[in-house]
User: Fold this.
Amino acid sequence: MQESLPRTDRSWEAASRQRIEDLLARNLPTVDAVPQRLHEAMRYSVLGPGKRARPLLVYATADALGMPYERVDSAAMAVELIHAYSLIHDDLPAMDDDDLRRGRPTTHRAFDEATAILAGDALQVLAFEILAGTGLADGAAPGALAMIRVLAAASGTRGMAGGQAMDLAAVGQHLDAAQVEEMHGRKTGALIRATVQMVASQSAGLPAARQRALEIYAAATGLAFQIVDDLLDVLGDPAATGKTIGSDALRGKPTYPSAVGVEGARARVQELVAAALDALAGFGPGAAHLREFARDLAARCP
Assistant:
């Protein structure tokens, strides 16, 4: 068993981020294995600069439930691989046609479109391979199956893929706040909800009230996360965000600020963060990092 990580202040965040970086580096295919170019693109896409928000949320949820990180390392890896695959595909010319991601050329610009598509496909499959392999390795097949079911649902038409389809269909249209929230709840929120739910599924005997509280927390933070990104696309600093500013407006994409204005979007973020923190009222000190995650969303809001 690995040593416990420091879990106070920002040292916890740095140590948890290093943990997931090391796990991803070890579990991604090496660049000297055939097909080398595909493996290089996969590692480029995953191991580049990134906040690792979703793996951090996995470990924060584990802390809230008193669960050792070893039980959820596979979930932390899987959710980051699914996120990375979605970014590769979202950036393609057929989707958002972005040239910059995390301050670097997008995968299809650094390599080529065909390699980018295959890299995304391979990362998606690798996420589920890691979850399934964990269940086989330690005899915890039912727990692995529960995580696979949650992540698959969040990635499909009821979640991320469906949200992206709605996003593409809405280009050039005006959506009201409720419609934007539904779209964001699938495209971004579903994967964040799944991040928390995957960990909760591994907690035997978790009271229904606590499970519901975590669901409320995850739904609120998931929506707030995307609204903050919408605001950063309008008001952010490209050097800080690593993305082109104003790209949503140029493409005619409906966003929360376009539906309710900048001040309305800011107010909604504050409401959602408050709701997330209220949901954790029944949790003790172990939920400190979940609370910090929510507060950080408010702090990132421009």
